[in-house]
Amino acid sequence: MSVFSLFLMAMCWFPMAAQNSAERGDVNSDGAVSIQDVSVLISYLLNGDETTVNRSAADVNMDGAVTIKDVTELISYLLNGEMTPPYEPEYMTVTVGSGTSAVTFRMLLVQGGTFMMGAREGDPYVRPWESPVHQVTLSDYYIAEFEVTQALWRAVMGTSSYNNPSWFCSTNGYENNYQRPAENMIYSQVTSFITKLNQKTGMTFRLPTEAEWEFAARGGNWSKGYLYIGGDDVYEVAWQSDNSDDTTYPVGTKAPNELGLYDMGGNVEEWCSDWYGLYNEGAQVNPTGVSSSSTSSRVMRGGSWDQSYRMCRPTSRHDANVAFKSAHSGMRLAMSK
After folding, report:
1. CB within 8 Å of 46: residues ≥ 6 apart
2. Which residues of the chain have pLDDT under 70?
3. pLDDT, tens digit, 9 for 90 and up, residues 127-180
4. Coil, strand, or helix at residue 170?
């Protein structure tokens, strides 16, 4: 059913104003949320006359923009009396070490849901191995706000150069800024890091599954359907080959995605826990990928400082041998709820 059909239905069902003391949805600022606000909002979207609307109130779904989605949300409210609550990120803070050497990071709660994983309609850069599109349902889980930084890696693994494989570090002439992402590690170093982190914290961190990674990158249940992770302008959300000047950057220096996650589309690409394989078109619940890989390859996601902007899409994926290491590959932590 179209938005305009719902609009006509609402006009028939709600001839009187629905009183609401909150500003949200009171598009024409008359003190009530009613069908008149729907009419004003649609008129604004058609003609762009900002003198007719209270833009703050018109952002009904509170996603930072006034779009047709706000019309749908407002009509839904008039029909059922409830508005979708605004997204409020929920974090778990973790500290490794103590005193001046302590390193703190945050894990963000991703509310589970069902989505269509894989190539998206209208994506001009889609590749064959991003298909077939298939339904995936995920439970709640946590994922790290940022990639693992060099500071966190050092806090867990120690400070010797052997235990710290990052290329973009002070020993190679780069700024002594340990907020750059850790990189250049093979898969066994990743698992060793997680094992030691769990021992130090008493927690059960892991790598995200490929499905968890993509759901979070898309924005979870709050996805706006962007082409790139966090927006349609890749320069605003990702360090990639066109803007990186051939280096990594401290984490969180580009805009986050809808959930408040940073650098999922660039800086360094990220290991996932799944063995690499082609997708299965059947519906799946909490999938963990194929049971093994004939090429001993795991899934890599996210694009990096020396890769094309096309790799910064939420569906982009490729394989990486477990013995592979590069200054463009890093990691992000996950945890089951």
Report:
1. none
2. 1-22, 63-64
3. 999 999 999 999 999 999 999 999 999 999 998 877 889 999 988 999 889 999
4. helix
Buried b (16+ CB within 10 A) or exposed e, 272-306: bbbbbbebeeeebeebebeeebeeebbbbbbbbbb
Give the helix ranges, DSSP H, for 102-179. 150-157
Which residue's entry shows tokens 């890989």? 293
Identify residue 265 by its one-letter amino acid code: G
DSSP per-residue codes, 48-60: --GGG--HHHH-T
d(CA 104, CA 281): 40
CB-based burial label for 147 (10 Å; 0-12, 13-18, 19+):
buried
Which tokens in the block code for residue 288?
Answer: 């963990």
Asked if residues 41 and 65 have their Cβ atoms less than 8 Å apart, the reply is no
Q: Are strands 134-138 and 284-285 parallel, antiparallel or unpaired?
A: parallel
- Residue labelled with tokens 């990189």: 183
Q: How does strand 113-117 pair with strand 91-96? A: unpaired
Cα within 13 Å of Cα(279), Cβ side? 24
Alpha-helical (H) ranges within the chain are 3-13, 35-47, 55-58, 68-80, 150-157, 187-201, 210-218, 234-237
The bridge status of strand 18-19 relative to strand 91-96 is unpaired
Structure tokens at 56: 């703050």
